[in-house]
Fold histidine kinase.
Amino acid sequence: MSKPKFEQPLDSSTFLRIRKWYLLALAAIALTIIVAQILIQVHLNAQLDDSRVINVAGRQRAYSQKLVKEALLLKQLGSDKKQILTELKKTITTWKISHAALQFGNDSMGIQKETHEDILGLFKKITPHHTAMITAAQQVIAEEEKSGLSPTGTTQKNIQTLLDNERTFLRLMDVIVNEYDNRSKTQLENLKFKEYLLLIFSLLILFLEILFIFKPLSLQIKNTISRLMKNQLESDANTDKIQQLYQENEKSLKELQELNFVIDNAALFASAKNDGSVVFISKKFQELLACNDEDLSKPLSELLTANEGQQQYLKEVLKSNRKTIRSEEINVETRKGESIWLDMSIIPLQQSSKKQNVLILCSDITERKQNQEKVEQLIKQNFEDKILQKKVQASQIVEGQEEERKRIAKDIHDGIGQMLTALKFNIESINLDNKDKTAEKIAYLKTLCSDLIKGVRTATFNLTPPELKDHGLFPALHKMTSELAKLTGKNILFENKTEKFIRFDSLAETNIYRVAQEAVNNAIKYAEANYILLSIKYTDNVLSIVIDDDGKGFDETILDKLPKNNSEGGMGLFYMRERISYINGRLFINSIPGEGTRVTINYKTTAPEKDVNLVS
């Protein structure tokens, strides 16, 4: 009676067929995993784009209301119309750019071109209202700049146009935002459905693999083990017979092994008796030791080295009875006065007469030792160079700190000090009898006090913020951008692309914060930028901080020509590079005249100090 299908011996063709199906199953599972990851990544990228688009679309509503509000402010008497006109122009520009970006895309804002027919249809409906509001606002600006007096009839008409179109614009903009949100939800539902299909497919492959591959293999392995155990019993019986033959031949085999070792591995070899006299020495060994045939009558220890201390040591080693091989590296002195290194193996030879002879096997390792010494010297020199470099960097950091202190002292002296002096003189000059002059001076003193408070807050903010020590780099940078935005009135934004709250070494956090602070201050002071974005990203143990601005930019070729102390208000480019170099980071500066500047800070670390989820 034949065996069942799964109990048959596993021939080569069956094994190859099973292996083929097994590899195909694994490949299918791997393919499903890859497809799932691709779908997830594509969806995540789409979600990121949709969130940015929804943010910009929502901001359009606020800008439309801001536009109408600023136009209405022009009608009020006593308002600062010049400032309102400036803000109104900025609002129109930003509103127009964002409206165009939502339809046709904008690389700098990270928005792709819109292709959804329904959304494009809504934009087609909203565009006439948007255009009407833009035209009316521009005409209001033109009338105001031309007349400079109370609002004319044309101005009233344009303002009414703004009010008439604002309500429709807001309603349609709400519909567009809802369309963006519905599209995002639909994409998420499709992704979930595809994920379920891929999961079912993977589980089905695993089930079939267990049923048709693993189960037959397990039965076959069980039968194979049974046959192996039976063969083991037969093998043990044969081993006992072979062991007797092996013991008889072991002695002769050992002698042959020792002889083969000498022939195959020894270029420098010699043999000696128990008393140290030479039995044989190779010609190559004689040439290396600079000895002739007449010297062979001397003990082997005297041939190996001319140093008396080493001779005594080798004599004791050669006379000692040992059963194991002794190996060591020894420095010997030849008869020519040369110092060489030998890797020496002393092998005892057991003779049938119970007398022990010694076999010496050597290798010339002089060159290796010399190279090793050179490597050690280079390592030592490299270590000393690194220590010197660290000292130089430390001195440069101290110099940068001194420059920063001088800058703070200059700010306090030139700004706060002068305002305090002016405050003192004005207080002393107040004459209570002259009430008109007194009221005027008190109003001036109020303005001066406000400026003084602002100057003090600006100067103290440039010092190390408490957020850096208490909460870490990310909250400190966020606080810096928000405070500078309040103090300067510029659009200074912070974008955190990380999903976790991460702490680094305190030295690294301090230096990275200072370099980022200097980059933002340079964009404010020298680039004349109105829009500054500081973004943070942490992937693969690399922290990347990017500061982008829309300032006037500069020619990058001047960076290599700047002196070390080229900075009117801080540590300057040189100290920025030194700080980043001090923590083994990298600094990149890219700028195009008229198009802005990008400063990139990269810092790689083996592992962050803290790594916990962000708390909203």
Summary: Confidence is low (pLDDT under 50) at residues 1-8, 566-570, 612-616. DSSP finds 13 helices and twelve strands in the chain. Residues 28-208 form a domain with the A middle domain of Talin 1 fold (CATH 1.20.1420).
